[in-house]
């Protein structure tokens, strides 16, 4: 770390302010180039033939009739993959194009390039693939138990993480148990997967794509194409939302393969239905919990078994398992812990990263348990949580001592203290009722309920991962005015990172003009836009580069630079983390924790089972709000996705087949479903983080779901052990 | 959880044939592919030369200007797009959305679902908001179409665009063109009497980043400013 004597400048467009987004004008004018909007002279359209079976042996692929179709330029199978026909974030276990076996419905088997999307689609219809259908493995718990076919060498357990702390046989006066289920949630970003691959004269390829992590895409592409890294260059296309769903590959290798094969630019765009098959989802989970406590509600032990369905390929299942296990008891101080979490291979759709990443599933279970414990002890649900709330200094189940603020109690007190919405009175406005203008009730059968929840999330990558960001900052005088440029490979996916990076440079260097250059692979990795980490890590790297430039400036002001260009490239890391002990799960696995609490108020039509979330208020500690407006946006967005999981969002599978791959059948919250939120933002600095900041994006997704469900329970008296809660769960019919 | 659709989704979903985009339907029967296979050889009836709005389709059966186009034939469609006269030659099955994006290069209008579920493709036709994926270009012969690219006057943003920036009413921006077009119409329709009313009349536009609170504030603000849009 360099030392600079100058202090950070307070500005109206710097840290702590909410200046306009640099991409805002282009986005409201329709001029922002999303990856789906890209166009190239002479470009072809790529399309993907996918497996119709969850599990089958391929007996033959005949592409002759497809190739014969006029306008078709390439029909490629696994035999055309020049490099290693396997990729994956953690394990290279997923074929670029299926070889002898397909392991999920929707698995890519053949790709084509044609002069028109319609020609490409017709070509796919002419490909003949022979399948010998096999019995799919569709249940994670039995897959872990070794039942059913072995889908990958080594068996169907992707990862098992045990956590052992204290006395494994601890007993308690009050014991509550429960079995909980979490359905498969989809990221449902609005801009489906898309990209444009342009073959280059040097035998390489330039790929413009919407992604969350350019360098890990690049690493996987070069292995599949058998090209050196400098021959595959990626530039970030405009990203229409991500939420974890773009961390894995979709069109990347396919588009590059087709472009290199045809010598023509190739564009690929999934439609909404294909998007449901084209990216990983949130792991569905089955969770068994037992909480033991004193009669006053003080926790003695937590024991849990968690089964996460990873689907056909590993993706990031290993890390998701690590999170669900290490965060499995929630933000509570528990002396005796025994948690086991498994991630399984099945023939269901592959699951991986989605906002909240393992912490979401665990939170629904442990928060449901805390409500059961409160009931068993005759305590208020907030009181039992406060009694057990962790704080700075608490020892986690992993043995890690929490060394920065953990204001769990304060967050709970804040949401409890917020005024409740007024009780309905007089002639009700239909729009405020469950069922809305469908006119299903005028208030009859409607019961109000209030519920609370609090959650914990690790921020940044964990378990010994070398988590860093590379940035280059330049300062020079342009047209008589100091101007800075920032170059990184970090992916702006809508969260506002580009604004935050500008703010940091403005405050650190005291310049107004800051340009954030397009993200690409001509600079080193900035890591993934996930784990709520970019402001922390890439923001931390930008700060470090600015500090070095300030040192180089010495006594000069930026305007006095003359012809000099100050240019600093920095690779910046957060504190290292440790791997978990394989048998005890002990280790300082996480670098930072984030916390949020919610209070939900719902009106439930108890006869029809319809829910209206009347209020969903939140308190979250963000350490330091670099951009307060963006922080609120993240909290609103994360809370909405949690609400969605609570009452509507689930990919339904039957025998491994997705039944609802559309926005007609997979519902996400509309403006009518999401109430206006009252939000308290706490800024308790983490002394180890740049500016004291704490990652923001994920924590609100975690506590939102259990708070909404707790409120529905309060209104209905139903146990509600599964999300999303369906009308039949409420009516019992 | 979704309320009744308040927007004028008058183009019946069942009337929209496959748009020829992308390959997912190859193995997944949907209402669309069923329709396509049933009617693949059938000619498509086109309402030609009718003015803007949904009335063209509704009255097509009794219109003497109805003509029949053979399979694979294209039709010339004249549109006024953002005040400019534009002509596209398209097969009758091409949606207005695809005509705008792929033929006229107006990619500001987004394709989030292509089935009228998300609202990202909302444009104004004859001053009314419609989902451009749910209408065929040939159904809009002669229509006045306004897309998000047509709102600003040079560098001066439309008040609704300004309000969306001021209120941080988007993150990824993927739904934003549709939200803004819907908001312009919502204000014009006078459906901004309260937050509840705005929510009801904006509920056909999904935002996965869930910037809803800020969208409502932006619409309210633009409406309050009395800067009613004249197109």
UniProtKB/TrEMBL annotation, chain A:
<dbReference type="InterPro" id="IPR036856">
    <property type="entry name" value="Ald_Oxase/Xan_DH_a/b_sf"/>
</dbReference>
<feature type="compositionally biased region" description="Low complexity">
    <location>
        <begin position="1"/>
        <end position="12"/>
    </location>
</feature>
<dbReference type="InterPro" id="IPR000674">
    <property type="entry name" value="Ald_Oxase/Xan_DH_a/b"/>
</dbReference>
<dbReference type="Pfam" id="PF02738">
    <property type="entry name" value="MoCoBD_1"/>
</dbReference>
<protein>
    <submittedName>
        <fullName>Xanthine dehydrogenase molybdenum binding subunit apoprotein</fullName>
    </submittedName>
</protein>
<dbReference type="InterPro" id="IPR008274">
    <property type="entry name" value="AldOxase/xan_DH_MoCoBD1"/>
</dbReference>
<dbReference type="GO" id="GO:0005506">
    <property type="term" value="F:iron ion binding"/>
</dbReference>
<feature type="domain" description="Aldehyde oxidase/xanthine dehydrogenase a/b hammerhead">
    <location>
        <begin position="29"/>
        <end position="135"/>
    </location>
</feature>
<dbReference type="InterPro" id="IPR037165">
    <property type="entry name" value="AldOxase/xan_DH_Mopterin-bd_sf"/>
</dbReference>
<dbReference type="GO" id="GO:0016491">
    <property type="term" value="F:oxidoreductase activity"/>
</dbReference>
<dbReference type="Pfam" id="PF20256">
    <property type="entry name" value="MoCoBD_2"/>
</dbReference>
<dbReference type="InterPro" id="IPR046867">
    <property type="entry name" value="AldOxase/xan_DH_MoCoBD2"/>
</dbReference>
<feature type="region of interest" description="Disordered">
    <location>
        <begin position="418"/>
        <end position="439"/>
    </location>
</feature>
<dbReference type="Pfam" id="PF01315">
    <property type="entry name" value="Ald_Xan_dh_C"/>
</dbReference>
<dbReference type="InterPro" id="IPR016208">
    <property type="entry name" value="Ald_Oxase/xanthine_DH-like"/>
</dbReference>
<feature type="region of interest" description="Disordered">
    <location>
        <begin position="1"/>
        <end position="26"/>
    </location>
</feature>
From TrEMBL, chain B:
<dbReference type="InterPro" id="IPR036010">
    <property type="entry name" value="2Fe-2S_ferredoxin-like_sf"/>
</dbReference>
<dbReference type="InterPro" id="IPR052914">
    <property type="entry name" value="Aldehyde_Oxdr_Iron-Sulfur"/>
</dbReference>
<dbReference type="GO" id="GO:0051537">
    <property type="term" value="F:2 iron, 2 sulfur cluster binding"/>
</dbReference>
<keyword id="KW-0408">Iron</keyword>
<dbReference type="InterPro" id="IPR002888">
    <property type="entry name" value="2Fe-2S-bd"/>
</dbReference>
<dbReference type="InterPro" id="IPR006058">
    <property type="entry name" value="2Fe2S_fd_BS"/>
</dbReference>
<dbReference type="InterPro" id="IPR001041">
    <property type="entry name" value="2Fe-2S_ferredoxin-type"/>
</dbReference>
<dbReference type="InterPro" id="IPR006311">
    <property type="entry name" value="TAT_signal"/>
</dbReference>
<dbReference type="Pfam" id="PF01799">
    <property type="entry name" value="Fer2_2"/>
</dbReference>
<keyword id="KW-0411">Iron-sulfur</keyword>
<dbReference type="InterPro" id="IPR036884">
    <property type="entry name" value="2Fe-2S-bd_dom_sf"/>
</dbReference>
<dbReference type="InterPro" id="IPR012675">
    <property type="entry name" value="Beta-grasp_dom_sf"/>
</dbReference>
<dbReference type="GO" id="GO:0046872">
    <property type="term" value="F:metal ion binding"/>
</dbReference>
<comment type="pathway">
    <text>Alkaloid degradation; nicotine degradation.</text>
</comment>
<protein>
    <submittedName>
        <fullName>Xanthine dehydrogenase YagT iron-sulfur-binding subunit</fullName>
    </submittedName>
</protein>
<keyword id="KW-0479">Metal-binding</keyword>
<keyword id="KW-0560">Oxidoreductase</keyword>
<dbReference type="Pfam" id="PF00111">
    <property type="entry name" value="Fer2"/>
</dbReference>
<feature type="domain" description="2Fe-2S ferredoxin-type">
    <location>
        <begin position="75"/>
        <end position="151"/>
    </location>
</feature>
<dbReference type="GO" id="GO:0016903">
    <property type="term" value="F:oxidoreductase activity, acting on the aldehyde or oxo group of donors"/>
</dbReference>
<keyword id="KW-0001">2Fe-2S</keyword>
């Amino acid at each position: 770390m360099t030392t600079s004597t100058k202090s950070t400048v307070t500005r109206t467009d710097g840290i702590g302010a909410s200046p306009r987004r640099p991409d805002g004008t282009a986005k409201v004018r329709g001029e922002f180039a999303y990856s789906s909007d890209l166009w190239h002279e002479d470009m072809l359209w790529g399309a993907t033939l996918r497996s119709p079976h969850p599990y089958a042996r391929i007996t033959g692929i005949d592409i002759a009739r497809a190739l014969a179709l006029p306008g078709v330029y390439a029909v490629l199978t696994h035999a055309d993959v020049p490099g290693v026909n396997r990729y994956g974030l953690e394990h290279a276990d997923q074929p670029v194009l299926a070889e002898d076996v397909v392991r999920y419905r929707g698995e890519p088997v053949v790709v084509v390039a044609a002069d028109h999307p319609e020609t490409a689609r017709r070509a796919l219809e002419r490909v003949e693939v022979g399948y010998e259908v096999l019995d799919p493995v569709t249940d994670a718990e039995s897959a872990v138990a070794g039942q059913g076919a072995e889908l990958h060498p080594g068996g169907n357990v992707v990862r098992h993480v045990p956590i052992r702390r204290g006395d494994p046989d601890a007993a308690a006066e009050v014991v509550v148990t429960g079995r909980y289920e979490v359905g498969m949630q989809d990221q449902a970003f609005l801009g489906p997967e898309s990209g444009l691959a342009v073959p280059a004269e040097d035998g390489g390829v330039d790929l413009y794509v919407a992604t969350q992590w350019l360098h890990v895409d690049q690493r996987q592409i070069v292995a599949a194409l058998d090209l050196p890294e400098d021959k595959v260059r990626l530039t970030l296309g405009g990203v229409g939302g991500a939420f974890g769903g773009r961390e894995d590959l979709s069109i990347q290798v396919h588009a590059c393969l087709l472009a290199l094969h045809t010598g023509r630019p190739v564009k690929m765009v999934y439609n909404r239905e294909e998007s449901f098959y084209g990216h990983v989802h949130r792991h569905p989970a089955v969770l068994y919990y037992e909480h033991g406590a004193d009669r006053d509600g003080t926790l003695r032990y937590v024991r849990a078994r968690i089964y996460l369905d990873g689907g056909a390929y590993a993706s990031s299942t290993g890390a998701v398992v690590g999170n669900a296990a290490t965060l499995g008891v929630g933000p509570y101080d528990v002396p005796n812990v025994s948690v086991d979490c498994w991630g399984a291979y099945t023939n269901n759709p592959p699951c991986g990263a989605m906002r909240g990443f393992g912490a979401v599933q665990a939170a629904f279970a442990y928060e449901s348990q805390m409500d059961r414990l409160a009931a068993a002890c005759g305590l208020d649900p907030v009181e039992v949580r406060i009694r057990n709330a962790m704080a700075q200094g608490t020892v986690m189940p992993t043995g890690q001592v929490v060394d920065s603020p953990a204001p769990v109690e304060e967050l709970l007190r804040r949401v409890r203290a917020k005024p409740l919405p007024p009780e309905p009175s007089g002639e009700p406005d239909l729009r405020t009722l469950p069922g809305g203008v469908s006119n299903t009730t005028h208030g009859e059968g409607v019961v109000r309920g209030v519920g609370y929840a609090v959650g914990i999330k690790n921020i940044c990558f964990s378990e010994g991962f070398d988590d860093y960001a590379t940035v280059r900052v330049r300062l020079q005088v342009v047209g008589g005015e100091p101007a800075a440029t920032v170059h990184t490979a970090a992916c702006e996916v809508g969260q506002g990172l580009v604004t935050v990076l500008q703010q940091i440079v403005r405050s650190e260097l005291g310049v107004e003009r800051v340009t954030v250059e397009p993200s690409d692979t001509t600079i080193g990795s900035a890591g993934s836009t996930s784990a709520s980490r970019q402001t922390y890590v890439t923001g931390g790297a930008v700060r470090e580069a600015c500090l070095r430039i300030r040192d180089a400036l010495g006594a000069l002001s930026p305007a006095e630079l003359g012809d000099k260009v100050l240019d600093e490239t920095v690779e910046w890391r957060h504190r290292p983390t440790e791997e978990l002990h394989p048998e005890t799960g002990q280790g300082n696995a996480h670098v930072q924790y984030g916390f949020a609490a919610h209070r939900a108020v719902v009106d439930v039509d108890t006869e029809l089972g319809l829910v209206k979330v009347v209020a969903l208020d939140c308190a979250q500690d963000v350490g330091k709000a670099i951009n307060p407006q963006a922080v609120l946006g993240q909290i609103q967005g994360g809370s909405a996705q949690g609400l969605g999981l609570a009452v509507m969002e689930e990919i339904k599978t039957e025998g491994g087949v997705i039944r609802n791959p559309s926005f007609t059948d997979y519902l996400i919250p509309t403006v009518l479903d999401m109430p206006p939120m009252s939000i308290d933002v706490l800024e308790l600095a983490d002394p180890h983080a740049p500016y004291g900041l704490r990652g923001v994006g994920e924590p609100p997704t975690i506590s939102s779901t259990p708070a909404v469900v707790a409120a529905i329970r309060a209104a209905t008296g139903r146990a509600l052990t599964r999300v999303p809660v369906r009308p039949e769960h409420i009516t019992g019919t | 959880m979704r309320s009744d659709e308040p927007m004028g989704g008058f183009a019946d979903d069942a009337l929209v044939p496959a748009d020829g985009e992308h390959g997912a339907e190859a193995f997944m029967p949907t209402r669309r592919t069923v329709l396509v296979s049933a009617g693949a050889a059938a000619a498509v009836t086109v309402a030609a030369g009718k003015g803007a709005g949904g009335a063209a389709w509704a009255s097509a059966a009794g219109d003497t200007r109805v003509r029949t186009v053979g399979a694979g034939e294209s039709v010339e469609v004249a549109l006024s797009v953002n005040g400019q006269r534009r002509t596209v030659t398209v097969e009758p099955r091409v949606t207005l959305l695809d005509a705008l994006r792929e033929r006229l290069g107006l990619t500001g209008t987004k394709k989030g679902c292509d089935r009228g579920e998300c609202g990202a493709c909302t444009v104004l036709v004859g001053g009314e908001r419609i989902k451009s994926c749910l209408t065929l270009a040939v159904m809009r012969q002669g229509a006045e179409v306004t897309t998000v690219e047509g709102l600003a006057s040079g560098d001066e943003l439309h008040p609704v665009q300004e309000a969306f920036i001021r209120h941080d009413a988007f993150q990824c921006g993927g739904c934003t063109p549709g939200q803004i077009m819907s908001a312009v119409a919502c204000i014009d329709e006078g459906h901004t009497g309260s937050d509840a009313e705005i929510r009801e009349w904006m509920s056909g536009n999904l935002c996965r980043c869930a910037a809803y609170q800020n969208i409502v504030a932006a619409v309210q603000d633009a409406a309050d400013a009395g800067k009613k849009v004249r197109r």
